[in-house]
Amino acid sequence: NLGESLRNTLKKIAKASHIDKNLIKEIVRDIQRALLSADVNVKLVLKLTKEVERRALEEKPLAGMSGREHVIRIIYDELVGVLGGAREVSLKKHVIMMVGLYGQGKTTTIGKLSKFFSKKGLQVGVIAGDVHRPAAYEQLAQLGEQAKVPIYGEPGNKDAVSIVERGLKKMLKKDIVIIDTSGRHSLEQDLIDEMENIYKVSKADERFLVIDAAVGQQAGPQAKAFHETVHITGVIMTKLDGTAKGGGAISAVSVTKAPIVFIGIGEHMDDLEMFDPPRFISRLLG
Amino acid sequence: KKINKKKLDSVIWELEIALYESDVATSVVEEIKNKLKSEIEGVRIRRGLSLEKVITRALKNAISNVLAIDPYDFDRVIAESKRPIIMMFVGVNGTGKTTSIAKIVHRLHKNNYSCVVAACDTFRAGAIEQLQKHADKLNVKLVKQGAGADPAAIAFDAVEHARARNKDVVLIDTAGRMHSNANLMSEMAKLKRVAKPDVIIFVGDALAGNDAVEQAMKFEECVGIDAAILSKIDADAKGGAALSIAHAVGKPIMFVGVGQEYKDLQEFNPHWMLKRLFN
Ligand SMILES: Nc1nc2c(ncn2[C@@H]2O[C@H](COP(=O)(O)OP(=O)(O)OP(=O)(O)O)[C@@H](O)[C@H]2O)c(=O)[nH]1
Ligand SMILES: Nc1nc2c(ncn2[C@@H]2O[C@H](COP(=O)(O)OP(=O)(O)OP(=O)(O)O)[C@@H](O)[C@H]2O)c(=O)[nH]1
Ligand SMILES: [Mg+2]
Ligand SMILES: [Mg+2]
Asked: pLDDT tens for residues A73-132?
């Protein structure tokens, strides 16, 4: 268990009277393994640990801080530096567009967000912009019923852009409009074009990238592709109720510079939480 | 000439990075690496061969051994099994279970087998409707009840239906579930007890990184996996999860999903996988 090996190396540092080069090399290797096991992007892991190594050797521990606390503080600092802390979601009138790879939890998260905003006293409307997945409209309609929020959709119509256009006109009075889009990946040019057209026609104020905590090395490259097309403004990491560490989120944030807005911790409508960086990082490092 | 330890370590580190970038789990990379090191240490290299070539070849062999577990001959299993053959599809949320079932029905129909599908995901919004849409397109019988109904009862009905009408294959779709959720895992174990499947297929996401190991191990522990399907390889995923799963539970990958259409199901080929992992 890698969290354990990292803790053991940190114990060695605690016992050492000063931090020597070899001990640092050893801890860097352990941090690399911990981050790689958490699915953080390989290039990012190498870059982060190089920086941790440099700082551990060059910086003096703060007064009263042990060598071990010094190194932990640096690792933590570097990770928070990438994550950039959490951000609040706006409660003003705005349009949100949800994008992401297949099966990440976009549609389910829309159900959760609808309930979240409704509880704040806001009027919410949802547009069923996924014209590809069988019964995508039906799935959203059922979630809308649970959240007591209207869904605009045109089952059978394969033109997502026209549905979004008409949906937005119908929902002008809503405070929050959320647009569901189909899963897609960067190699499907026609779907990337569709996503870009939905963005252009909706002028969505927020473009949230929904990403599954279990996604591995593809998190970075895919996030980059989505970012290049619609400029991501926030990341939602789902399925953190499983065992995945969510390192893909770190890669996605570092590539889009968009902070994590929410995390999904289950399949029910209430399973949505604000992102808490310290908790996330300590779980990541095991 | 004898192998220089420092050079060996640096060549192995380069190969390690390649495997990590292909989503092979760290625990699997560690085991393969240690096995490799113990085989290589003290070995002498023939003149004219570079250290890189020798190590890369040894690594590829180590990986082929993991991947080439008794391959699962799906067509043969279907042809030779008693009737109806009952297949149950399991896995965590969103990995492609429902879509994979549709692809397999399509393949079975092309080979002139008759099928019955059981809609045993009675929890998720739109799950039954999604399967009904596929069933209508494929012209296959879907056994279903309302949302919230008992999955075990539906599976039982589907098997009875298949027996009565001499159908060849029963395919049971189950709800996605987290392997860390004890209640859902025991619900799945109960479904297995009632439906008595002949084959249990784990559907994993090729986009998954290290968690693929944990998922496969927990599902193997709970109900036992006969073979796996790895979906979404077309999302440019290298699919190292295939290696992680095969290594973790010693079960074969029988198909990979390469798209959302019914035709997008390919037989798993270890050589093809090896090329992907190293490019
Ligand atoms: N355990 C758990 N399951 C989740 C979470 N979020 C979504 N899911 C489940 O993940 C599966 C996929 O969710 P969807 O909302 O259909 O995903 P999607 O991104 O809309 O999928 P596509 O539209 O096909 O790309 C469903 O079984 C959801 O119930 C979460 O935070 N935890
Ligand atoms: N690109 C691609 N997409 C796939 C593949 N297999 C499934 N999908 C997509 O992944 C999404 C989820 O597929 P489902 O079949 O609903 O997954 P599931 O495992 O049944 O999901 P739950 O029942 O919610 O746990 C859908 O949008 C599918 O079209 C594949 O091989 N390639
Ligand atoms: Mg969806
Ligand atoms: Mg399903």
From this structure: 888 889 888 888 778 899 999 999 999 999 999 999 999 999 999 999 999 999 999 999
Radius of gyration of chain A (CA): 21
Q: Compute the residue count for chain A.
A: 286
Best probe of the B interface among A102, A137, A145, A239, by most B CBs < 10 A, is: A102
Check if the beta carbon of residue A264 is closer than 8 Å to that of residue A238.
yes
* DSSP per-residue codes, A214-245: TB-TTHHHHHHHHHHHH---EEEEE-TTSS--
Give B-chain residues touching A141 at CB under 8 angstroms.
126
SS3 A155: coil
A143: distance to nearest CA of chain B, Å?
7
The residues, any chain, with a CB within 8 Å of residue A236's CB and separated by 6 or more, are: A98, A105, A109, A208, A209, A210, A211, A260, A261, A262, A263, A264
pLDDT tens digits for B189-201? 999 999 999 999 9
What is the residue-averaged pLDDT of chain B?
92
- pLDDT tens figures, B89-133: 999 999 999 999 999 999 999 999 999 999 999 999 999 999 999
Please determine, for residue A1, whether its predicted confidence score (pLDDT) is greater than 60: no
Q: What is the pLDDT of residues A12-46, one digit of tens each?
A: 766 666 667 888 888 888 888 889 999 999 999 99
Using CA atoms, how far apart are residues B220 and B216, in angstroms rounded to an integer?
A: 6
Coil, strand or helix at B201: strand
Tell me how close the Cα of B167 comes to any Cα of chain A, in angstroms: 26
Give the closest of A105, A135, A214 to B208, CB-based: A214
Non-local (6+) Cβ contacts of B153 within 8 A are B145, B194
Quote the CA–CA distance of B237 and A254 in Å, as a whole number. 20
**Best CA proximity match to B120, nearest among B99, B95, B144, B85:** B144
Share of chain A above pLDDT 70, in %: 94
B218, A170 contact by CB (below 8 A):
no
Across the interface, whether the CB atoms of A102 and B232 are under 8 A apart is answered yes
Crossing angle of helices B270-278 and B51-67, rounded to 10°? 140
Q: Which one-letter amino acid corresponds to residue A151?
A: I
Q: Which residues of A83-111 are buried (b: 16+ CB within 10 A; e: fewer)?
A: beebbebeeeeebbbbbbbbbbbbbbbbb
Centre a 10 Å sphere on the Cβ of residue B29 and count the other Cβ atoms it contains. 25
Nearest CA in chain A to B204: A214
Contact B210 A245 (CB under 8 A): yes
Is the Cβ pair A243, B211 closer than 8 Å? yes
